[in-house]
Structure formats: structure tokens, C-alpha cells
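Study this chain:
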Amino acid sequence: MFNNITKKLFFILFTMTFVFSLVYTAVIFLVAYVTEDSLLNRMLTLEAANITSETPKNYALPAYIKYYKNESELPTQLRKELQQHPAETEFFIDNSVHYHLKHIYHGNNRFGILVAEVSNLLVVTTLAKELTYFFVAVTLFMLIIATFLALITAKYIASPIKLLTNEVDNFTQDSDISNRLLDRKDEVGFLANKLNVTMNQIVFALKRERNFTSDISHELRTPLTYINNYAVGLDPTHPGYNHFTQAINEMNNIISTLLAIARQENLSQQRVTLISVIEQVVISQHDNLITNQNEIELNVDNHIYVLANQQLLTLLFRNVIENAIFHGNKEQTIELSFADNKLTITNQCIDLKQRKRVTHNFGHGTHLIEKLLDSQHLTYTKKDLGESYIVEIDLDPILVQ
């Protein structure tokens, strides 16, 4: 980024200098030509004033100026140019002869024309080649100096930005941004102070969140352990035993999932085989599969790899498969297949109109699945086809080709 900023600043400064040099050179040539033309026109004006005050025969004109009583006496080529451009007072003939004209009115409807052949008086035109070389040399010299100054200026401007970025990268909860930046009395110093305050607030918030997560993990698991131990001593034949144990399992699942999402270390990702994660989940559901007499059919290629957090991906698949087992029919086959970058879970269930079963997780199942999907930047769709229920998880964002 800093190289880009330096290069952009250097390019801007260099371009400005180059453009200014060209404009300055053009202005110099323009002023020189205008001055030259003004001087020649002034000379003709003075000669015209002398002619109108004296008899032309008695007044000696300079060798390069001639007086013509009418246009018919003008040189042929000059006369043709004047007829085509009567308002012009300056003519180039064959790009070699240069004329300046001045019309004179003597009174009594008498006119005359002063013609100055000034080819040998064009100092700027004669020296244009030498002047061009001179100005090119000066321009190149100035560009070399401007390039050096632009490079120094660009580095000087980008230096505090680079230093500030390094300070932010190396920021820890026990350190602040360097005083070299905080004490600056410019925009960079203002930004450094704002970033310093913001970074400290973020560090404090993260520390508070870690402490909260740690406290919640400890405080909730202690009573849950007690409840689990208490459930072991209950009578399995009691009418509410199954609902009670299911609620306990659901609470354990909710706490485990939310804590896994909250932990910062679970934001890391690694390359894992999709089938291996699914197989681990299926093995963990062995008891539920036996109880419901379900089977799992896997149609997933062994060479499908994903870049994801393995624990969060395992929790995601576990919640989806648990829902499929619970809401599906007994003695059915749950199919997991992968096609078009999507993992599809299909299970047979009671028709929608005949369903009387109330979800055992009080609606938390779908919410947890959505939280786990968001943590991995995934999306899913649900299709209720009456006697079958299909969940499609789009794995395209985490697939590794």
C-alpha cells in the first residue's frame, strides 16, 4: 500500500512539474512572438504617421519597407493572399517570405499600403531552433530536480502513514501507539490519537468478552453436570423421562455450540476432507440411529475438500443430522449427497397435514443452524415436500478446488 501511495504522490508531483514546464515554455514563446509582432506593427505605425505628414516622394523609407498606392501594385503572390484574406495584416509567402501590411488613409478618398518585408527581422523565428534546444535542456534539468524533490516529498508524506500502520499492526493490550505519532499536531496525529483510543476500547471489549465467555462456560456447565447426574438416577419408565433427557441434551448442545462460535480460536480455518467430518458426526449419532432404526446413506466423494473451522463445521452437520433423525420417520434411510457444490440431506417424514409432533428443541435448532452457517459464511435452503424434507447447504464459499 505504501509503495502505491508513494508512487501516486510521485506521479502527481512529477506530472504537475512537467505540465507546468510545458505551459511555461509555451507562454515564453507566445510572449516572444507577440512582442516581436507588436514591435514590427509599431514600426509600421510610426512610418505610416511620417508618410501621412509628409509627401511620400520627399520621405525616404527604410529598405525593407515599400509604399504602394493601391493593391494592384503589390507583388503577385501577396496580392492574391490579400484578396483572399483582406482583414489580415501579416502574411507568409511560401513559408519563407514574411510580410507585414499597414493601410494608410490620406484623406480625399486616397489610400495607400505600407508593406514591410521582415523576413530578416524575425529574431524569434530565426532563433526558435536554438531557443527550443535551450528550453528543452532547461526543462530536462528542471524535471530531474523535480523528480528528485517529488520522490523525497512522496516518501516524506507516506512515512507517517506507514509508521501508523506498523503501530496498529503491532498494537497490544499493554502498549499504545508511539508518541512520535500521538504528539504530531497535524491530521496524522489526530488520526493516531483516535485510533489509539479506538484500539484500546476494542482490546477492552475483547478482554471483557473472553472473561464473559469463560465465566459462562464454567457457571453453566456446573449446574448442567448436576442435572445430568440427577437424570441418571431417574426412572426411565417415567412418562416425562424422555422429554427431560432430550431437554438436557439440547441445553448441552446449545451451550456447546454458542461457546464454540464465541471462542476466538474457532475463527481459524484449515483444509479438511468433507467426508471425514460427516463420518465423525454419523459415528457420534450411533445411539440415536439405533433408537430410531435409521440408516445413513453417504454419496459424497472422498476428494472433496473444504477450508473451514472443523469444530464449527462438525457442530453444523451434527445439528442438521440430529434434526433429520428426530423429525424423520423410523426405519428410514437418511441420504447425504454432494452435487453442484451443495450438500443435500434428505429424510422421509410424516406428511405435513398429519404431523402432531412438537419440536423437542423449542425452536432453537434452526436458530443454532443459522448461527453456525453465518460463522462459516454459508447459506442453506429448506424444502418441505410433504412426505420428505430436504436441506441443501451451499458449500461453494469454503470449497477448495
Summary: Residues 2-53 form the longest helix (52 residues).
